[in-house]
From TrEMBL:
It comes from the Bacteria. It comes from Photobacterium pectinilyticum. InterPro entries: Hppk, Hppk_sf. This is 2-amino-4-hydroxy-6-hydroxymethyldihydropteridine diphosphokinase. Pathway: Cofactor biosynthesis; tetrahydrofolate biosynthesis; 2-amino-4-hydroxy-6-hydroxymethyl-7,8-dihydropteridine diphosphate from 7,8-dihydroneopterin triphosphate: step 4/4.
């Protein structure tokens, strides 16, 4: 079994699609835990605010099979097959950490979003503050204290049922 951290985001019918993403993700592994859900302004484009969170699962799926399953889940829930960065989306699922895997080929792991976005690092702080980032050597807490994000986050007072 491999411990996998996955970021989820939606800014179109946010509650519906984030709920769908969490439900689908729960079928790909066991022991799922989910961070607080945060509302955040979009980065790099204008549009509705996002709901974002991070989930952790234990899975026996290989990286390639998991990546394919996540892309299929996005497509099932209205994501365009031609989706590009910096646009509104129904569902965005990104692997942040896949065990201790470090790779420069797609998907790049650990995912660089860990270093760039409060909506990724803050939820990781909740789930795994002592987790060492593979290939980096720092813990999530150390990264958090070294980061200076300008993006504001607001906890969402909604409880999703998975």
């Amino acid at each position: 079994m491999t411990t996998v951290y996955i970021s989820l985001g939606s800014n179109i019918d946010r509650e519906r699609y984030l709920q769908a993403g969490l439900a689908g993700l729960s079928l790909l592994g066991s022991g799922m835990k989910v961070s607080t859900i945060y509302e955040a302004e979009p980065v790099g484009f204008s549009g509705p605010n996002f709901f974002n969170c991070v989930a952790v699962i234990e899975t026996s799926l290989s990286l390639d099979i998991l990546l394919h399953a996540l892309k299929q889940l996005e497509l099932q829930h209205g994501r365009s097959p031609n989706a590009v960065k910096n646009q509104s989306r129904t569902l965005d699922l990104d692997i942040l950490l896949y065990g201790d895997t470090v790779q420069d080929a797609y998907p790049v792991l650990p995912r660089s979003d860990i270093y760039k976005f409060a909506f990724v690092l803050q939820p990781l702080m909740e789930l795994c503050p002592h987790q060492v980032i593979p290939g980096d050597g720092r813990t999530v807490t150390e990264l958090w204290h070294a980061s200076h994000f300008e993006q504001a986050l607001w906890p969402v007072e909604h409880h999703f049922v998975v």
